[in-house]
Specification:
- It contains 17 helices and 19 strands.
- It is of the alpha/beta class.
- It has five domains: 54 residues; 62 residues, Orthogonal Bundle (Arc Repressor Mutant, subunit A), CATH 1.10.10; 145 residues, 3-Layer(aba) Sandwich (Rossmann fold), CATH 3.40.50; 142 residues, Rossmann fold (3-Layer(aba) Sandwich); 29 residues, no CATH class.
- The radius of gyration is 26 Å and the shape is globular.
Length: 495
């Protein structure tokens, strides 16, 4: 029986996907097996990419054209590895206490090195702009900026009257407040609201209108993007016009990174939850656990963050070869859209209902005199987020459970994973015996229901943002425009 002819197109497509995902095996035979082509065909495809300058040596990925005759460098020395580890711990706040590095004695005990080596490493880290010597200690902020640096956090509220953020954003806000307190920074919160065609900013405590962009208002800004509507070009232009450092935390995956207007020396985009990295990390975890056929199930696929997490999963599973697959069970529209709630509230108005409600209010205490529209919106929000999400998710789970090959479900959030866990109880599906359930966010829901979930490492995000706002001209920041902080999978009983 003759072997069917192999085409270079298949091998080239496989390598192209591998380059985008940033993952490549080092064995040419392994590449050929995963792509389903012959060794000779894969060798030709790899050789073509080497000539184009996209691969070299042992198939490392180059984002820019490499210099000629570049060879694979030696393994980093123990001192270099220690320097990278200490740098990560400084950025994440793991080696920082009350705005300064822990003592030399504690550092030596923690990292198991000599005082001489440690001081040499600290000097290199100082030159990178991460720490600043002051007496016998190293601080994470320059001495002339401590105790007077003021940061304004700008966030878009979901409510026209109150400062309301979703649970994930509130988690980050609490962590960022604690990090600012440790670094002795002053933090204010400005609420962004849209009134008709006008954008206004209010104080989060008192609610009065403010102008956060005057020169004396702040030394740095953090723009929190947690939903598509929270990104406003008018706000971005005003932030850049201040001339102060601006950090954007894009949790919704909506910031136009490719827009050259925002290639600004005092602007850095931080991402922990809105891009593809969480999906890639969770996919690697599932593959190491032996799950070859998985499903991504999302009733929120109208949101960019859901699609981005799915794309990260797909990239890694595509690299794993033909024996692995990721099935998608999604709704193209998100059930979280607040516009649907407000529209629904306007449609359920009626004279008879309003009159009965007014009569009831006249016989009740003053604290029960709520606005009827608010009650309707709150009720519809509950319907959309609880009953509506549950119904939509159960329809998707009914489809997913029919595929007997699938051994793991990936949900877009712990909120959805909790409902999937309830579905399995109702259907007598053993978790994790028959189906493993994993999700993103690592919220209190995940701890309560023992759901394996991806933690976005907001401590590291907060410390990195403060480091940039306090020292935007540092060498480290000059080499990075988009800073993606990698989190970790917290393994619990459902995974």
């Amino acid at each position: 029986m003759s072997r069917p002819p192999q085409t270079a197109t298949k091998a080239a497509a496989f390598l192209s996907n591998a380059l985008k995902a940033g993952l490549l095996p080092t064995s040419l035979t392994d590449l050929a097996v995963r792509a389903g082509v012959s060794y000779a065909t894969m060798w030709k495809a790899v050789r073509a990419l080497k000539k184009a300058g996209k691969l070299h040596g042992s198939y490392r990925v180059w984002s820019k054209k490499p210099a000629p005759a570049v060879q694979r460098g030696p393994e980093p020395s123990p001192a270099k590895r220690l320097e990278e580890r200490l740098t990560r711990d400084i950025l994440s706040g793991a080696a920082v206490l009350n705005g300064r590095l822990i003592s030399i004695k504690e550092l030596i005990a923690r990292y198991g090195t000599s005082a001489r080596t440690l001081r040499r490493i600290l000097e290199r880290i100082r030159l990178e702009g991460f720490v600043f010597p002051h007496g016998r200690h190293y601080h994470i902020l320059p001495s002339d900026r401590r105790q007077r640096l003021k940061v304004i956090l700008i966030a878009c509220s979901d409510s026209p009257d109150d400062f309301v953020l979703q649970e994930l954003e509130l988690d980050f806000l609490r962590i960022f407040e604690a990090a600012c307190a440790d670094a002795e920074l002053s933090l204010d919160v400005a609420v962004l609201r849209q009134r008709g065609m006008e954008i206004v900013y209010a104080n989060a405590v008192y609610g009065h209108m403010i102008d956060p962009f005057v020169k004396s208002a702040a030394d740095g800004y953090l723009y929190l993007l947690h939903a598509p509507k929270s990104y406003q070009e008018t706000t971005m232009r005003a932030l850049l016009a201040t001339g102060k450092p601006v950090a954007v935390l894009d949790q919704a995956g909506v910031f136009p990174v490719a827009d050259k207007r925002y290639d600004h020396p005092r602007l850095r985009i931080f991402t922990a939850s809105g891009r593809e990295q969480p999906g890639k990390s969770l996919a690697r975890y599932l593959l190491t656990k032996g799950h070859r056929h998985c499903a991504f199930i999302s009733p929120f696929h109208g949101d960019a963050w859901s699609r981005n997490r799915c794309d990260g999963l797909k990239r890694v599973f595509a690299l794993a070869g033909g024996e692995c697959s990721l099935s998608e069970f999604t709704h193209s529209k998100s059930l979280k859209a607040g516009d649907l709630e407000i529209e629904g509230a306007t449609l359920v108005r009626g004279k008879r209902l309003q009159a009965k409600f007014a009569k009831w209010q006249r016989s009740t205490p003053a604290n029960a005199h709520w606005d009827t529209d608010r009650i309707k919106i709150a009720g519809l929000r509950f319907l959309f987020m609880q009953i509506g999400t549950r119904q939509a998710l159960y329809e998707l789970l009914d489809q997913a459970v029919k595929d007997r090959r699938i051994t793991a479900w990936v949900l877009p959030s712990d909120f959805a994973a909790r409902m999937a866990l309830q579905y399995c109880r109702e259907k007598s599906i053993a978790v994790p015996g028959k189906i493993a359930i994993t999700a993103f966010c690592d919220s209190p829901d995940a701890s309560t229901h023992r759901i394996t979930s991806y933690n976005f490492n907001f401590n590291a995000v907060a410390s990195s943002i403060i480091n940039f706002l306090a020292h935007p001209s540092g060498v480290f920041w000059s080499r990075r425009r988009v800073v993606e902080i990698e989190g970790k999978v917290v393994e619990r009983e459902t995974g």
